[in-house]
Amino acid sequence: MRWRGGLGVAAMSYVAVDYLRHLSPEWHERLQPALWTVLALIAISRVPFYKHWASEFRAAIPFVASMLFMLSCLLFEALSVRFVSAVLGLDWHSDTPPLPDTGQWLLLSLNESLPETLVHILRARIIGLHHFLMLFIMLAFSVLFGSVEAPGLGLGARYMFTMAIGRLLRALSFVATILPSTRPWCASSRFRVPAHPHYWAQKYYVPYSSDADAIRQVINQDIAYAETGEYLGDYRPDWGAMYFLIDFLRPTPSEGSSWYNLLKKAGGGCNDLLYSGHMLVAVLTAMAWTEAYGGFSSVLIWLLVMHSAQREVRERHHYTVDCIVAIYVGVLLWKMTGFIWQSKDRARGRRLVKLEKIQGRLIQAAKDSDMEKVRELLKEVEIGDQESKKKGLTRSMWLFSGVIIFSALTIVILAFTWTSDG
């Protein structure tokens, strides 16, 4: 029997109680530990009665593999964030105006026409990144109550794998074309990178960045023709085997002792990172919730996604295009990866179709008491199911391998390009 209403109530209670930190910190300090204690005790009480441990153990390996893939994509993303923040120097960040954003204009105009109470609701920090992550964790653990179909680790594996692909595509997108920040003061307050551009930017971008005639000539000649003059060198610490990262990270003497520490400081970056990583997490949580649980609570979660999107634009963490792209990329990625983690349902469907095809012969063999014929027909169904499983496993392995090889080749090509040009 499924606990249909409880999960939605628990999720909305979590969001409401956590928002009390803004309304009444005193009540928040009381209610939040009490809520988590109650939810934890209820979950623990269900553990002895859980009947799907075998499927959870089978899903453990894909879950761990997805987590490792996710961590590698986050490492590449952190490298890309630092790169796009450092390559043009701090002067570019402070001098370059933000791009025009009609979504920002629309929200400002609505502030003038909507009721003040509604504007306050739109401005309220109701939900953030950690809320969406916690909502998914609650969804996965609800397998203990039968609210979501087991295994919970299988759902987690799909969630992490889909997010990893999304983060990889995001990093490749924002590292390909560097967009100015919606907050021009951000880079100088957070990073200590050199003020001047890297050699590559000085050679291929700076001479042609604002002169229309120079842009026309470089298009016609298809070669960097301008003299760059004397290049201002960068600090180059001894990073051993990771020496090639210097051109990506551009350390300064005050922070250049460890390349890993620089990546940890990258955070969300300062210039615009197309598309929004926060919105990707929000959309994947909403997609998982809608598909696995559904109901009215999924509608509320989508409303929270929309609220979060407008607040990202309103507070100028992202351009409107970042949120729009994140929404449809998240939806499409979740649908795309569904064919891996729903193979069990498809296999069951194929088995039923096969049984329907041989139903007449099976019934006739049973009437004739021909047990040898019955065994032969059932074996035919089992062999077909095993072949389908092998094909599904092969497709999954090829997909995992392809993504990992693609990621590795991208890093190698970027490293080779920079070390040869720098």
TrEMBL record:
GO cellular component, as recorded: endoplasmic reticulum membrane; Golgi membrane; plasma membrane
Subcellular location: Membrane
Keyword annotations of the record: Lipid metabolism, Membrane, Sphingolipid metabolism, Transferase, Transmembrane, Transmembrane helix
A GO BP annotation: ceramide biosynthetic process
Pfam family, any one: PAP2_C
A single MF term (Gene Ontology): sphingomyelin synthase activity
Membrane topology term: Multi-pass membrane protein
Keyword flag Translocase: no
InterPro entries tied to this protein: Sphingomyelin_synth-like (IPR045221), Sphingomyelin_synth-like_dom (IPR025749)
Residues annotated as transmembrane: 61-84, 129-148, 280-305, 317-341, 397-418
Domain Sphingomyelin synthase-like: 269-336
Family membership: Belongs to the sphingomyelin synthase family.
Protein name: Sphingomyelin synthase-like domain-containing protein
Biological source species: Turnera subulata
